[in-house]
Each structure stands twice: as structure tokens, then as C-alpha cells.
Amino acid sequence: MSALQKELLSIAFFAGGVALLLSLLDSGVSLNFVMMALYAALLAQAWNILGGYGGQFSFGHALFFGTGAYVQAIAQIDGGLNPWVAMPLGVLASASVGVFVGALSFRYGLKGSYFALVTLAFAEVFRIVALSVPFTGAGVGLMVPLREGFGNMQFGSRRGFALMVLGLVVLALLVTCWLRHSRFGAYLQAVRDNEDAARAAGVNPFRIKLGAIALSGGFMGAGGAFYVQVFQYIDPGIAYGAHTSVEALVGAIVGGMGTLWGPLIGALALHVLADLTRNLFGQLPGINMVIYGVVLVLMIMFAPRGLGGLGRSVRELWKGRAR
Amino acid sequence: MSTHVRNRRHFMAQATAAASALAFPMVGGAQPKPVKLGVLHPVTGALAFSGQQCREGALLAIEDINKAGGIKSLGGAKIEPLLGDAQSQPQVGAAEVEKMNEAGVSAVLGAYASAICLATTQAAAKYNLPHVVDVGVADQIVERGLKNTFRFGPGYGVCARVAVINLHVLNTAAGKPAKTVMIIHEESLFGTGTANLLARELPGYGFEVKEVVKHANPTRDFNNIVLRMKSLNPDIVIPANYYNEYALLLRTMQQQKVTPKAVYSVLGGAASSFKFVKESPDSANGIIDCNHWFNPKDARALALRKRVEAKGLFFTYEIFNTYTAMMYLADAINRAKSTDRAAITAALADSTFSDHFMPYGPTKMVNGQNTGAQPLMTQVLGGDIKVIIPREYRQAEPVFPMKS
Amino acid sequence: MTDLSILFPSLLNGLTTGAVYALIALGLTLIYGVLHIINFAHGAALMLALYAVYWLKEAAGVDPYLALPLVVPGMFVLGYALQRLVINRASHGKDENILLVTLGLSIVMENLALLFFKSDTRTIETAYTLTTVPIDIGIAQAMIALPKLVAFGGALVASATLMLIVGRTDLGRAIRAVAKEKHGAKLMGIDVDHVYAMSFGIGLACLGAAACFLLPAYYVNPQVGNGFVLVAFTIVVLGGMGSFSGALLGGLLIGVVESLGGLLLGESLGQIGIFLLFIAVLLFRPQGLFGAKA
Lengths: 323, 404, 294
What we know:
The complex is a heterotrimer. By secondary structure, chain A is mainly α. Chain A has helices spanning 3-24, 28-53, 62-77, 83-107, 112-132, 158-181, 183-193, 195-200, 205-231, 236-240, 242-255, 262-278, 287-302, 310-322, and strands at 142-143, 233-234.
């Protein structure tokens, strides 16, 4: 069996397994937990496309998240569109913003920290604009009216939403798999590893990176649209704030950038950690986050290649000791 | 009767009681099951201070209720709080509600911030779990048609309207010295919503809104805004923002020697805050606020204030609003005579709760909002916060305008 | 409304606010210039320094300016220890890991502060907190708060001191060598780990100075650092990563842009000026306005 076939099979198992789990689970807490873990995984996977495979770290991925979220909300509230129609619009919008930012940044040769900071700056610009223009509701934000029903993409229980985000996660996995085995993906990784050499070999780095940022932005926008459907409220802070940008990159890096399962593993691990620590020592707020921060640092200390590469890291540690 | 016989009778009575207690555990003496209530606030993250104050208010109320004998109609059942941390984010608040629901709470009280309340009330609605909103002033919270959501205190719509009317009253009584207004508000939900309402209503009372200034959260420097103020020279400055920015604004005004005829706040972050009065008495002097406040003539409020201050905390609106909201909830549970969610929801909806120290009209819940709720007008005078309007709660005559 | 009587004070105000920004950015630019890491923990470290200044005043009555000889070395020690014992060990030299380690540290610092100092906002009162100094240039006047003028002076002194240290001392030479060519420096016998830690320490020491100048005009609570992080990053890029004069001038420029932007577009939208400038510099002159080409 080829590597590609193995990966596709494992994705199928994953999809089937989680879907089965979701159909068996009854508790609201568990369904919500799985839904939020998958949501975090989606964000991390989106980031991974550009950051892990493209080698372009973004600090402002909320830019795409917020755009997808606002388009989803505005299309429904002002445009009267059905949410199932609005979501692809949101994805398209965020992918377009990705192309815009990418075109500017890559045209002027921004790399590394500079690229990371420019994405952060764009996210802030969008946040400030969203605070001022009337069609985003400015500081008041936008509320999507409550209208339950499959046709309105508002499911009564978390199960429906969890299945929906599972679909998005599986789609992201398939795209990541495609990146690992396609020519486009090979070009992208070549550009990541050595842009000049890739250019010399006939690859057009500009176009390749644009494709990556569009894909990455699109998935992030899907995450934003999903958020709006679940929580039915968006404001500039939630949409373009640093919190979502951090969530996306932390999950991918902790889990292992540039891998198929890394972002998912990382996002899940951090989600479990956050959940476990939240109400520890409930009477002393703050301790929970201290523990979270400490564990985060420890995770990086002992799994420098990400949790996905934990096996290798442990083996190296072991070998080092034995000598 | 001889002592011997009396003692024997006494012993027999006690023995019988003991025997029946063993046979029927619920009768006389044994503890009924506690009533579990979710107490959900953002106690970490950007809103930590307010969230912690709210939690304090809820816990104080629970302590008092339990000490007074718990829920009487349930055999003196004690309230058991399940504490949750919304971590200043709506999605975390929603996740906590799921946990509380599964832990079997009969109702939830929370979650201070409007954005978080929108998510938590919605999550609770899925399970028909009654949710009492403690502060959350955005009117959208009670306008979505959710049957499980109840707010005992006023929203910003009521606050803005009361503020405008009273400004008109004060101004007229002083001979209409003030004509122009400058509104300074924080950029998010509560500030923008309040400012929009004010800008709409004020012209109807003959005030000219010279400018509406929006500022960021946080704002590091107010010198520009104060410069603008200097040049526009409004008669009245109306701030609607959170504590830090309010305090910084007032200090900057003092520094730059800008003294409008009145500083008239609507839900001003530090305007009716004992903390601000204590730490910046000069800046605070004379500020008028339209905000949540307790009945200053009610001994229970004063006693609670003493208790809170003895703990080294400030008696802020987060505390007394949440305290009262918990009292309202406990009263509903008592009237429902059960921990069944539907029964409690019904009791919350037709509540006429009056055994509290908030200066509200008669309690009447319409679509989840207590129409009797109202803010009070306070003014910082002589180093203390005094109620000036309405007359029935007045502690001091209003000083308007501040400077002539 | 935008006549000189408002423009002049606004300009001066921007300069003095920008001076504090510069103090914060000085440390960040050193850390970036030498260690090439974007220190996510910079805001949290500023917060800790502010608390140090606060408690020295509250508990021991030490005036914030007199606290300089205590807070600056204290922050230096903290920075040295953090880099040597935590960041260096945890990151295994990979950039993305350093990022996350500093992020984790910032979470820990912010919440330890929340735990021990509680969430209340704290301010200090000194004799001069509300004093203003009139400045008159004939055609325009302004009243500038005294603490802000002192901060301006402090920023000048701090930049000069840093430029002296890095330009004239042995340590400075080592720092420059490591910043330019880490491996070569190691081969020359320079203890790179020590230099890294010294740089991080000096970076945090600058925050200590910034805190002493900032607190009289501001306040402190566990989240206070977050409001300065983005602006600090902007200034570092604007001034050229690793350039002290760049950080100083960049800080002043950003302060003015923020102030004038606020005047013209309103305080909320005016913030956009900073980030648009940031983007423009990144695109068209990434080495910064005052930096040398990489």
C-alpha cells in the first residue's frame, strides 16, 4: 500500500470513528467538548497549510477568521441569504483577503518575522475598521437571529454542529494529504525549504505561495463562519482579536508543523489541557492558567518537534542518556 | 409530677424522636438535598476584576440565604454553588453551561459581560435551564425571545432614557445653564449602544450634541480627547466607559484644568465607584452618574456594604447587582417549591419579588426583563457617593452645575 | 478644530507618549536584534515591572523615579534568569518554539500576577502626578504633564546609555558579534549563551526603566501589558530591528502618528494610522526607517 493510500485510509478511519462516536455520545458536555476540539483542530490545520507546509508563519490568521465570520453574518442578516449559501461566500471572501495580503506581502518579498508581523498588522487594521463601519455593527457587533433547523444551519444539539465541523476537518485533512502528494504541494514545500533553489528549478514561488495562503485563508474563514453559526454573535474583538490567531498557531506548532495529524493532535491536547485546568482550584482564579502556561512550556521543552514527533524526541532523549 | 416521672417522660420523648428519625430519615432533623445552582463569571482574563466581584456577590447571597435557613419550601434545603469560569470568552462560558447542566444544576446565574451572556443564555436555553442575568446590560440579551432568560436589573436602554430625562430635569431646575454636550464612550457593545441612544434622545430635550467621541479599550492616553474638549468647550461631558479609562480621563481633565459645567455619566465605569472616590477624591468630586445603585436607606444594603469592606473589597455594582439577582432566584425556587427547571422558570417569570434592597419599582417580568428595574442618579459629594434622584431615595441636594 | 492651538499640544503630547513607547521598544529591539526572537512575553514583563514600582511605593514609600536603581537591576536579573534557565532550555534553538515559550511565559506571568495581586487596577499618587508644565513657543502654548516630560528625558538617557553599552564596551562588542554571526562568535571564544542572557536581561531592564516612568501617568493591573505589545512591535520594525536610535525615533514618530491620527480620525479609528504605517514600512522599507539593509 502506498503512503498516500495509507493516509487516505487513516483519514477514512478517523472520519468514521469520530462520526460513530458522535452518534453514540449523548452528554451535552461531551458533544460540546468534541465540537470545540474539532473546531480548534480546523483552525490549526488551516494555519498549518501556510505555516507548516508553506513555511510562512502568520501571526494574524484571525484576519481570515473574522472575514469569514462577518461575511457569514452580514449575508444572512442584511442579505437575507441562507446560511448554507453564506458559508461558501465567507470562505471565498477570506480566501480573497488571503490573496490580497499575500500578493502585497510576497510581491515585496516579505518572509519570516516580517511576514508574520504584517499579517498581525492587517488583522489589527481590519479590527479597527470593523469597530468603525456601520455594516459590521461597529462596536455593538452582529447577532444572527435564532432560527433552528437544518435549513438554517442551526442545529438543536451540539451533535449537528460537531458533525458539520467534522466534515470541515476531514476536508482539511484531505487537502493536507493532497499537499503531501501532489505537484503543487511538492512545489510549496520546495519553496519553503529553499525559495531560490525552487525558483531556479522553474517553480513560480509567488503563485505557489498565493495558492497556499488562499487555501489557508479559506479554511480559516470556514472556521469563522462556523463560529458565527454556533454562537450567533460576532464583534470586532472576537473576529479579529489576537486570541484566535494564537489559538491557530499554538495548536499547529505544539502538535507538529508540516505534518498531517500534528495540528489535530496539538489542538486536541491543548483543548484537553485547558478544559482540565479550568476549574482546578476554583476558588483561586488564575492558578488554572498558570498551570496551562507551565504545561505549554514543558510541552515545547520535551517535544520540540511537536507532539506528533514525540516518539522520535523521546527516542533521541533516550539515546542521549544511554551514551 | 415528680422529677423522676418528668425525666422519664422526657427520655421517652427523645427516644421516640430518635427512633422515628431512623425509620423516616426525612422527618425532622435530617438534611434535605441541596439545591445546585451554577455561578458563572469571567474570573480570569480581561474581565477578571468584575467577574470576581460578581462571584463574591453571588457567594455572599448564598451564604445569607443558607444562614437564614435555606429554601424553606424545600425543607430548608441549602444552596450549593457550582462555580464556573468563563475566562472572558463567550465560547468558554457556553462550555461551562454545558458542564453545569450535566452536573444537574437547577438554574444558572451569570455571566457579567453582555457578549458572554448572549452565548451562555443560548446554551442554557437548549436544556430549558433557567438563566438569571446579573449585570449584562445589552438589551439584545432579553430581546431574543428566549424563555429561560431573566434579568432583574436594568438594561442600557432604560439607563440611557432615565439619564436623559433627569439631565433635562436638573438642567431646567437650575435655569437651563447647559446647552451643549460631548459624549465620550468606549468602542465596544455597551459604550456604543449607550452612546447611540443618548445621541438620539438628547436633541429632543433641547441639548446639542457637539461631538460623540469613541475610544479604544484600552486607551493609553486621553490628552487628545481632553484637548478636543478644551476647544469644543461643551457644557456637559458624558462618559460611558469602563473603570480604567474613566479614571484616566478624569485625571487628565484635572491635569489639563478642564472643568465643564457637569460631568454626567451614564453607566460610568468609575463614576459611582467607592474605589475611585477613595483614590482620586479631587477628580471624582461632583461627578454625577446614572448607574446601578442600592437603596441608601435600606439597612440591609448598608450592612452588606460594611461586610464587603471588612473583607478589604470595594462595594461595587457587580456585588450588589449579583447579590440581588441571587436573592430573586432563590425566592423563585422557594415559590416553585421544587428544583424542577420548568417550575423555577415559571416562578421567575411571574415573580413579584420585593424583599430586596434595590431601589426598583414593583417587580414585573416582561419577556424576561424586570420592568420595575431602574438606575439611580448619584453624585460624588463631600468624598462620598450620594443619591440625588429620585427624591424618595435622595441623600443630598444635587449640585448642578458644578462650576458657574 | 485642527488649528495650531490644538495641533501643537497634540504634537507635544504625541512626543511624550511616544517616549514611553520608545522605552518599551528599546528592550524589544535589543532582544530581537541579538536573539532574533519576537518576545511575546514583553508585555507581561512590563506588567511585572509596573507592579514592582507600585509595591515599592505602596509598601516602602519609594518614589517611582528613585526606584530606578532597584527596579532596573531587578528586571535585569529576571531577564537573565528567564533566558538562561527557561527560554534557552525549552526552545532547542528553533524559532517557532521560542515564540511559544515566550507565549507560555506571558500566560504564566499574567496569571501569577492575577493570583497574587488580584485583578484590581492600581494607581499611585505622588506630589507631581497632576502637575503640568506650561510650554510656550509664542505662536502656541501647551500644558504637558510633568511625569510625561520626565519620561521623555528618561527615554533619551536610556537610549544613549544603551548605545554606549553596545557601542563602546566589551560586552557590547560581544553582543554585536553574536547578533551578526553567532557561530563565528562562538569560534572566537565568546560565550554565546551568556551573551544571549545578558541581552535578554538588558532588554527587560529597559522595561524596568519604562515602568518607573510610566506608572505615575498610568496604572497597573494584570492585563496592562497587552495594550503596549502591538505598538512596541510596530516601533521595533519601524526603527529597524536592533537599532536603538531607530527605536527612539520610531517611538516618537509612532506617538505623534497616534496623536495626530486620533485628532483627525477620532481616537478609535485613529489607531489605524499606526498599523497602516507599520504595513507600509514592512512592504516598502523592511529594514526600517533608520535601520541598515539586512
